Amino acid sequence: MYFCTMEAEIITIGDELLIGQTVDTNSAYLGQKLGSIGISISRKTAISDNESAILTAIAESQSRCNLLIITGGLGPTKDDITKKTLCTYFNCGIRRDNSVVEHLEKIFAQRGRQLLDTNLVQADLPQACETLHNEVGTAPGMWFHEKNQIVISLPGVPVEVYHLIEERVIPKLKSTLELPIVEHRTLVTLQKAESLLSRDLEKFEKSLPPALSLAYLPNFNMVKLRLSQKANSKQELIIDSYFDKLLSEIRDDVFCLGDKDPATHLAEFLIRENISFTTAESCTGGFVANRIMQTPGISSVFPGSIVCYANDVKISELGVDPQIIENHGAVSEPCALAMAKGVRAKFNTQLSIATTGVAGPNGGTEEKPVGLVFIAVSTDTQTICKKFRLFGNREQIIQRSSNAAIWMVKQVLSIPV
Amino acid sequence: MYFCTMEAEIITIGDELLIGQTVDTNSAYLGQKLGSIGISISRKTAISDNESAILTAIAESQSRCNLLIITGGLGPTKDDITKKTLCTYFNCGIRRDNSVVEHLEKIFAQRGRQLLDTNLVQADLPQACETLHNEVGTAPGMWFHEKNQIVISLPGVPVEVYHLIEERVIPKLKSTLELPIVEHRTLVTLQKAESLLSRDLEKFEKSLPPALSLAYLPNFNMVKLRLSQKANSKQELIIDSYFDKLLSEIRDDVFCLGDKDPATHLAEFLIRENISFTTAESCTGGFVANRIMQTPGISSVFPGSIVCYANDVKISELGVDPQIIENHGAVSEPCALAMAKGVRAKFNTQLSIATTGVAGPNGGTEEKPVGLVFIAVSTDTQTICKKFRLFGNREQIIQRSSNAAIWMVKQVLSIPV
After folding, report:
1. Cβ(B12)–Cβ(B44) below 8 Å
2. ipTM value greater than 0.90
3. CA–CA separation, B291 vs A163, rounded Å?
4. Does A2 reside within a domain?
5. In chain A, which residues have their Cβ closer than 8 Å to the Cβ of B31?
6. Above 90 in pLDDT, residue A334?
7. B72 with B111, same domain?
8. Cβ contacts of A226 on chain B, cutoff 8 Å
9. 0.90 exceeded by the pTM?
10. Which residues 26-85 of chain A have a CB within 8 Å of chain B?
11. Which one of A30, A296, A299, A412 has the largest count of C-beta atoms within 10 Å of its C-beta?
12. Confidence category of residue B5, pLDDT binned at 50, 70, 90
């Protein structure tokens, strides 16, 4: 325990990030994980697979902070030069790590693939680093610790980053650094615009002491609110009383507590309460069910569901009366209600969700424009339908529809936050 | 036309990016779009909503290049300070832009919402900038042009970034700069590991002249290969002959040409050839259908589909013989074959895809471990099934299963690249 840092930087290496063929999800993950142990990221820099760009970026970062995490550039192909460059930076040669060779032999045997020379190169590491063993991939992580500076280099594949951070980096950082405390409390709202929330919370925000801050994180028709506090000791923490105050200001708009996908919160409730559910989806094409079924264990309450684009399928599979479609059209309240009732009866579940609308970009009319969506929710005791006018492109309308459906289920089942 | 740049930088502003509650998709999009007009991104920097961090990052960027695009920090809430900081940087005051006020009045009336003072603030812009009108949101973009330096500031909401870049920024850049040529040719492979592709392409890579480069972009069991050339004139372009050579080296592994989601390529083929399809999905929970239905116009060939988690549903909805499940289990080749045939008959389509497997994290056994997936594809003339051993977590197994299913359909229908 001989030095203390609160700030770190991330450098991501790869032309594919700059040219935009890969979206960088690693650094968001790193921000979350390091934040959870009291290390905040002050800067992220993305640069190309270019030796001088890498050397410059590392040196610049080391002049600003004493913890740097580098991701990417460790694959077996020619465009990956991070490792060579780290040898130059730390002025050292290469060593072959036999424990990595053994690991490579094992995983290639498991996958039934031949171990090539290009793969074996991954066991060659700079002499200046400690090896961070990678159980789920072929490229190990590297830990450089010189004077009071730590540089960590990780591969770019997300699942390998998760593994190395959780199993190797975080335990090692905790045992090396004396860390300050950063606490966050997050809640998720649905169906209310950021500017309206901000107006409702004006007084609350003004009441916050300097150590606390509130951030708005909007995403489709969902806004996450994150309250943060930095402190030197646990005794200084006052975040919970302010979080309670925040909650009491906007209680009716809160979907759930924590930094959670609303679909996960709903799925966990259905599993816990053993409430079976199904969906009949037209405009959302199965997206609502798909979001909910991402949660492990969902199969105990989810027998299956129907995607019903065609009117024939609405009639034959869900028992929608053809007269309803003739009189009101498939994008209508009576059709959504009939779909919800029909699918609940078909799969014999306690809850059902039905969607029918115009997701676009084609198929809109003056009477039924792109973005018009009817959503119905049905249980043993009630079947309700709401009409929505959603905006955005096809993907956004589908995403917003699924959030609206999840919000309706919360109302119908009175799901706690 | 008084200066020429090939390199640009991006600065993204927002604590939510550093703390990791938002994944930055904008800068990947910006990399693609600017690349398409011959501007390459040499660096992306993410910083917090902090005046001095913003001022420092802008000054540093301007010392390295003469085009800078800033995203984020333009929302109506208190944590957004980009605009004020730009006034400081460009040493100017604020002006109210009346055309923006009119636009705000119009869109708030359309959405049936009250125009608040916090919203009106979005019409206040630095005097030093030209307004980039934002038709799809409330925060306009800003264009600063001093000496031979351009700084563009855009809001952070992705749909607004897309609009402003396509309708405002790219036309304005094209008319202001003399741009070099950067050409890319991309192809998508499925089901072959990066290291095996790299071995097959070793000779080809060595044969590339210095102006050309090849990048590997792996994502689940898909690898995109991108060949790039920079040139001063169209006459210098030789990329197409090398791309043909690349194609001929690995023809059997290529799924499609261009930087495309394989699901989109499949969907476009089905729509163009008017081949109706459906799916019966157990372990993938509707994800295969959901990927394919993202393509506009799909409703003409996609009547609907079934998610069948429960064995009961496989039996009652798809007509799977209960004996099959009793003798072989639901995760088996006979069950996948019966599901594919059953769903094709039910929806009367020309093509069907069925999936059954163990997505995990629970439910695996020694005989049927997590990652074991059977995928069947059925047409009028044949029904085939393949067994896969996929690795990764639940999400990855679902993603890999969908890629494997799409690959199988290509084989069965002989879909051209």
Report:
1. yes
2. no
3. 28
4. no
5. 17-21
6. yes
7. yes
8. 16, 19, 21
9. no
10. 27-33, 35, 40-48, 53, 57, 75-79
11. A30
12. very low
